[in-house]
Each structure stands twice: as C-alpha cells, then as structure tokens.
Design brief:
The structure is a single chain. The chain is an alpha+beta fold and 400 residues long. It folds into 2 domains: 162 residues, no CATH class; 162 residues, no CATH class. It contains 13 helices and 12 strands. The strands form 2 sheets. Strands 1, 3, 4, 5, 6, 7, 8, 9, 11 and 12 form a 10-stranded mixed beta sheet that branches. The protein has a two-stranded antiparallel sheet with strand order 2-10. α11 packs antiparallel against α12. The two termini are 22 Å apart.
Length: 400
C-alpha cells in the first residue's frame, strides 16, 4: 500500500522539507508575537515587584503614576508615614525621556528615589555591579539593558550624572530600562522650568501690580520663589506592616487625604488592562492573520501534493481501499508537514527571542497551545484535499 506522506518525503523530500521550513518561519513569527505579549505583561509585573510597594498613593482621580500623569505635594509622605498599618512611605517620580551618554541617546525611565538606604520603596532591590546611590546629587544607578557601564557620565536635562551601579531587569511597563537618580535631581529634571521660561515668568510677575505692593515688602520675591520652586512628586510608595491589609490602610487615606490609592491587584489591572490593552489587541490581530495565512499555505501545499497523486489514489480506490484509509493518509501528510513547521518555528523563535528589540517571554503553555493550534490548522487545511481525493473516479487508474 502506498503511503502518501512517506512517498513525498522519500521521492519529493526537497519540496516537502522546504515547504515545512517556510511554514516554520511563519510559525516562528507567531510564537515570537505571543512571546512579545507575555513579555509586556511580565514587564508590568516586574515593575510593580521591583517598586517594593504595597500601595500606590497618587493624585485624586488619576491612574498614575505609570499609566497617567500624577502630581502630589512632596510632604504628603510624612502624614502617610504616621497612619496605622504603614511601615514605610517614600516619594518617587517617574519620567520617560532620552538620556544622553557621549554621542548617543537611550530612551529610559528616569526614577527619582527618596533619600534613605537600600530597601526603601522605589530603590532598586539589588545590583549586579557597583554600589547604590550614596550622595544627594549627580549619581545614578542604571539597568544593564541600557548599555551604560560603571563610570559613564549621563546627561539628564542640564545636569550630568555618574553611573555608580548597575542593576538588571529594572524596566518600565513598555520595556524601557530604568535610570535611578536622587529625588531632588529628578524633581528638577521633571518639573523645573528652563532659564528662559523662569526669566519670562519673573517679568510677568513683576509687571503684575497685585504682587508689587509697596506696603508689603518681600511679597514679590516670595511669589517668584514659589513659582520657580518645585514641591511635587508623582506618587508615594507605601509598604504595610505585617498583618495590615491594603483595604484597611487605603480607605482612611482616600477619605481624609483626598488622594487615590491603588493596591497591587488594582495597579496590575491598570497596567495590563489599560496600558497595554491596545498593544494586546494589535498582537491578537496579527496572530489571527498569521493563523489564516498558515492555513492557506498548508491547504495549498496539501492540495497540490494530492493532485500530483491522482492516479495513485485512483488505483487505491480500484483495488478496494476504503475512503477512510485514503483520507487518513492525506491527513497524515498534513500533520507531518505541520510537525516539521512547528519544530522549525520553535527553534527560530528560541534563537530570535534574545536579539528581539523587546523582551520576549516564551512560556511552555504557549508552546503547547501553539503545537495544538498548528495541528488543528493542518487538519482543517487538509479537508479540501480529502474531499477532492474522495471524488476521484477509479476509472482514471485505467485511463490515459
């Protein structure tokens, strides 16, 4: 009995193998896109884990500090620190920007961390080289993915910072590496106006008669100082005492401080459900398109290979071979093609993941689901060829 899959592999192995490789590259792209989505979700969770916070206190009615702008006074942390159930509270600022180093720019999330010591919320939890920030100004700790090295001088706005430590897997929800600098420097970089803007603001203030009263000495200087100083942060990170629950600590803050408070599950919902929701839908559309294209390729190839064996199929029907046997052989051919394609795709995705611009997380669940999906696509794609084979007239085995 003729084995259709065996015949193609032995006598037309080049066409069959190269078709499997082409299909495999397409499957590799599909697995990589799924890994990109997994990586985005993992980036968001890593961001929350590395913050060391149990609660995020942000501006009222905002989704800050990661998904939306948030600005609160930088003295709020003192009152939060004294509330029941709070063990630590620390200010933090986040600013995504281009960080210069030599002649190149790197897009990074600049994080302003409060003065203190390692272990305080917002600080990088561990280093792979160098030391933590010990000075109040002009020192930085950078993620290794930024490409910065110890001793590099970074340009952030109009100041320069020396890299004294390197950390790893400290990224924003979009995958940008983090650069940690002292809070005062970060406030200046994020909120302080440039010199020209300060000069123009001073002139407008001096021209306003409401602030230039002869009977109130020092009023103008006080107003100008208030306008040019910065007293804001993006959020306060709160760590709870053992035994305290996020709900019982967050409710008094919302009620008495008029601020919005998010716990871990709520913040993860914002990052995954809102911040990367659009990207997730885009990736889902790409996966659907790739699945349709893969099915079309498999259907075309199986149909072509089956057409090349019309006489063999007619002979099988002439000698009494059951339709179920013929259909099973064609299905076997499709499944072997899908198996070759999946193996090639898995290998290509594994080797491509480390060099991909974004973090790609390949998980076993996606591999298993991908294999089952490929086999299901191959089964569906073989239906056209099977129907055509079952309609073959046995008389064609005798005809010219």
């Amino acid at each position: 009995m003729i084995s259709l899959a065996g015949r193609d592999i032995l006598h037309a192995w080049g066409k069959f193998i190269f078709t499997g490789i082409g299909l495999g590259l397409l499957i590799g792209v599909t697995l990589t896109m799924a890994g990109v989505y997994r990586g985005m979700v993992d980036d968001g969770r890593v961001l929350l884990d590395n913050s060391g916070a149990d609660l995020w206190v942000v501006q009222k009615d905002t989704l800050g500090p990661y998904a939306e702008s948030s600005s609160i006074p930088d003295d709020v942390w003192r009152s939060l620190r004294t509330m029941p159930g709070v063990e630590q509270a620390a200010n933090v600022t986040y600013l995504t920007m281009q960080v210069g180093q030599g002649g190149r720019d790197v897009r990074a999330m600049v994080v302003g961390i409060a003065a203190g010591e390692p272990g305080l919320p917002g600080w990088p939890p561990y280093l792979v080289a160098g030391r933590q920030i010990t000075r109040g100004h002009y020192e930085a700790v950078a993620d290794a993915a930024s490409g910065f090295a110890l001793g590099d001088v970074l340009s952030i706005r109009r100041n320069h910072y020396t890299v004294v430590g390197l950390t790893r897997r400290m990224v924003s929800s979009s995958g940008d590496p983090m650069v940690f600098i002292p809070l005062k420097d970060a406030q200046e970089a994020q909120f302080l106006k440039d010199n020209d803007a300060i000069l123009m603001q001073r002139r407008r203030t001096e021209a306003n008669p409401a602030f230039n009263r002869p009977g109130v000495p020092g009023l103008l200087d006080a107003v100008i100082a208030a306008q040019t100083s910065n007293r804001s942060v993006n959020a306060v990170l709160v760590r709870l005492r053992p035994g305290a629950t996020p709900q019982e600590v967050a409710e008094p803050i919302r009620r008495w401080k008029r601020l919005t408070v998010y716990d871990r599950s709520q913040m993860e919902g914002i990052l995954v459900g809102k911040l990367i929701a659009t990207s997730a839908r885009q990736i889902g559309m790409f996966l659907a398109i790739l699945a349709v294209v893969s099915a079309a390729i498999v259907a075309f190839i199986i149909y072509t290979l089956t057409m090349d064996k019309i006489r063999e199929i007619a002979v099988l029907k002439l000698i009494g071979t059951r339709n179920r046997t013929i259909a099973g052989m064609i299905l076997q051919q499709a499944l072997v093609l899908g198996l070759i394609g999946f193996v090639v795709g898995k290998i290509s995705a594994t080797f491509a993941a480390p060099i991909f611009p974004k973090y790609v997380l390949l998980v076993p669940q996606d591999t298993i689901a991908g294999f089952l999906a490929v086999q299901a696509i191959c089964v569906l794609a073989s239906i056209v060829a099977i129907r055509m084979a079952l309609r073959v007239d046995p008389a064609e085995a005798i005809g010219g």
